[in-house]
Specification:
The protein is mainly alpha-helical. It is 77% helix and 0% strand.
């Protein structure tokens, strides 16, 4: 079982939350498209970097929630996940992905 204050919990939350934010955005704005069409649209029009950047805003809220609850290890995990996404965004920005 994962402890309440663990870096793994923060990492999992930090990696899943932006993905869920993109899914929620798809449901609210582009529900007439299939998810695969929506994702291919993002890739074709080179919107990966802006989409991921905006979806990372949810990590800010999770980070401060963990800090306010004094779950410092979990907040470090969210920060690590944000840095992982930052690397992906940089790779996408410069055309590697």
């Amino acid at each position: 079982m994962i402890k309440k204050d663990s870096m793994i919990l923060g990492l999992v939350c930090g990696l899943l939350a932006p993905f869920l934010a993109i899914i929620i955005y798809w449901i609210m704005q582009f529900h007439e498209m299939k998810l695969s069409e929506f994702l291919s649209h993002i890739i074709v029009y080179k919107l990966i970097s802006p989409a991921l950047s905006l979806s990372l805003l949810i990590n800010l809220g999770i980070f401060f929630l963990f800090l306010n609850k004094e779950l410092y290890h979990s907040s470090r995990g969210v920060l690590l996940a944000t840095f992982i996404y930052a690397g992906i965004i940089l790779l996408a920005k410069f055309g590697v992905i």
